[in-house]
Amino acid sequence: MIEGLSPMTTDSEAPSLWQACVDLLAQEIPQQQFNTWIRPLAAQVSDDGGKLTLQVANRFKMDWVRAQYAARITALLEAVQGRPVVLELALAPREAPVRTSPAPRTMQDQVLSELPDVATPVEAAVPAPNRSRLNPQLTFTTLVEGSANRMARAAAMHVAGSPGQLYNPLFIYGGVGLGKTHLVHAIGNQMLADKPQAKVLYIHAEQFVTDVVKSYQRKTFDEFKQRYHSLDLLLIDDVQFIAGKERTQEEFFNAFEALLAKKSHIVMTSDTYPKGLTDIHERLVSRFDSGLAVAIEPPELEMRVAILINKAAAEGAEMPEEVAFFVAKNVRSNVRELEGALRKILAYSRFNQKDVSIQLARDALKDLLSIQNRQISVENIQKTVADYYKIKVADMYSKKRPASIARPRQIAMFLAKELTQKSLPEIGELFGGRDHTTVLHAVRKIAAERQKVSELNQQLHVLEQTLKG
Ligand SMILES: Nc1ncnc2c1ncn2[C@@H]1O[C@H](COP(=O)(O)OP(=O)(O)OP(=O)(O)O)[C@@H](O)[C@H]1O
């Protein structure tokens, strides 16, 4: 028995609550992450169902699961259970090792090597809830509009209303947690609402890779083609995951051509614009760019406020505007984090039976706010990078161009964009009054090189860790 736990049900009784949660997580977390972090967790539920303990293999995994997934898991458990559930993470006892992923694969040929790491197909464990794999809750109605997503949303609505015409393919790109997945589900849901017979498929790119590999192994390419080439709408998420996967890219290209020829629509999402993709064939990239590529930006303050108020209302809770402003001012990175903050506040309010107020939000978000207080400044980045590369801080603002100075300066600009909320012009200003295009060039250059040069990646990693403290 795990220390400090109240009586638990046996493992065989626990899974229904956990399994329901796992099923939902499988729909929203990329498959590789799901297989790595969620699938191996073993669950125990207390007798009264008020506490669920997840056993994690080691401390590193425990920290990661806590930081990345605990808030979401709690919310899903509460949604499934219909009442508060306390989530605990515990180290798995040594004598009862947690379930692990299947034995390592032998990578005998190029196609097998395209399987995502530690992956077994998700559908082996988690049945797809519907053929289209759409989450019916992710609709245009529940997607708050703001200047950050206005263009992408308008294009998406156009595609949903008149598929196969303009903007084919539609390529939606942007940073994490900004609503790309939500938007593509909204297109699919809208199309199905208008045309229930339409063949719509939402798929994460990693699952597509798995499908290619499986059909290769089982020699079922005809079925594969039949399945993908007959669609009316293909929604493919995080397309950057097909990078470096030759066979998958070929099959994607074939599906792409077949679908466009019959005027079916293709919508893709990615973390970068088409030309920013690396290790994807030029012929594919140019096709990605041949319809409309549109960005989703981080939401502005008013949009963050609206999202908080809407999401609270959807949970049957009221969030006064002043509280929403307080939270929105402090949680600025992306919508997923905003949702996490909201969940914490609502849970805190329920447990303590107190109305939502600024003070309550302050208490509920204590940890998060203290991190904000230690926020990283551009000045700090400049000093840390200058120290690391042994140049003078003054060279960060100077006009000097030798590579030994220009490169650390570009790295500092990249980190300033990544680790602070400053805009490109603001960063340019802080680097000796440089133009925002100079900053953008540096950011793109370093981001692209990081993917290819492991030494640079390592250096950036060290700098990031140093700055985050
Ligand atoms: N404009 C919005 N209005 C309401 N909810 C939003 C909005 N944008 C994002 N969300 C919500 O934020 C969460 C994260 O969004 P989503 O998963 O679509 O992001 P993403 O851009 O696909 O991220 P990733 O690249 O990490 O997959 C989801 O719960 C989504 O419903």
TrEMBL record:
InterPro entries according to UniProt: AAA+_ATPase, Chromosome_initiator_DnaA, Chromosome_initiator_DnaA-like, Chromosome_initiator_DnaA_CS, DnaA_C, DnaA_dom, DnaA_N_dom, DnaA_N_sf
Coiled-coil boundaries: none
Domain Chromosomal replication initiator DnaA C-terminal, residue spans: 377-446
Keywords, ordered alphabetically: ATP-binding, Cytoplasm, DNA replication, DNA-binding, Lipid-binding, Nucleotide-binding
AAA+ ATPase domain residues: 166-300
Binding site for ATP: 177, 179-181
Subunit structure: Oligomerizes as a right-handed, spiral filament on DNA at oriC.
Entry protein name: Chromosomal replication initiator protein DnaA
Designated gene of the protein: dnaA
